[in-house]
Design brief:
3-stranded antiparallel beta sheet, minor pseudopilin epsh fold, 202 residues, single chain, 8 helices, mainly alpha
């Protein structure tokens, strides 16, 4: 299945007041994400993967334990990751729905503890990667981190929330202050209603 760059679910300047500038979204969505789409389409053209779903391409090309993933996986996975990332954020912020809060408190003891673990995972990811709040295959909630473009699909997990900690995601707005970027993401950028909907359908 050919990759298509999705439109942002908000204007490029919609998150500026919450700490993610128009310039960041123009570079991150319009250039970086689009490059994964363009390169991924070139790599799958003429292969058996061209007729597969994005999720099947990711799980079918993932090489567990590989230091450097193959090109098809890298571009497909990063396309999926970024598509989720845009949807997981929202303009203006919103309160965490009660059912989501209850599940987080049950799993982590408090919302603050989940946020602390999430931020630590993102700050502690050496080099490029992502941090995640997931539903594991046994139904439990946990915080994880992945290198480069690896994502929860590779481990039969459902992604509820993910944050891109590649440098291009935050350097324009936060320079080298990744922990500050993560704190701002959790406090000002997350669309908790989207996270709750993902949990409800997990």
């Amino acid at each position: 299945m050919a990759f298509t760059l999705p439109d942002l679910p908000y204007a490029h300047d919609a998150l500026a007041g919450a700490g993610m500038s128009r310039e960041t979204l123009e570079y991150h969505h319009d250039l970086h994400h689009n490059a994964y789409v363009t390169n991924g389409n070139k790599l799958i053209e003429g292969t058996d993967w061209a007729t597969k779903s994005l999720e099947d391409i990711i799980t079918g090309t993932y090489q567990a334990g590989a230091v450097a993933q193959n090109g098809i996986f890298n571009n497909a996975s990063q396309h999926w990751n970024h598509t989720q990332f845009w949807e997981m954020m929202g303009a203006g912020g919103n309160a965490m729905p009660a059912e989501l809060e209850a599940r987080i408190v049950d799993a982590f003891g408090s919302v603050d503890e989940m946020k602390s673990q999430f931020s630590a995972a993102g700050a502690g990811q050496f080099g490029a990667g992502w941090c995640w709040l997931v539903v594991d295959s046994d139904g439990t909630l946990k915080v994880t981190k992945t290198e480069n473009g690896v994502n929860p699909l590779c481990f039969n997990q459902t992604a509820l929330l993910g944050c891109d900690v590649w440098e291009h995601s935050y350097y324009i707005d936060f320079r080298n202050k990744r922990p500050a970027y993560l704190t701002n993401f959790l406090d000002n950028l997350v669309n908790w209603e989207n996270v709750a909907a993902r949990l409800a359908s997990a």
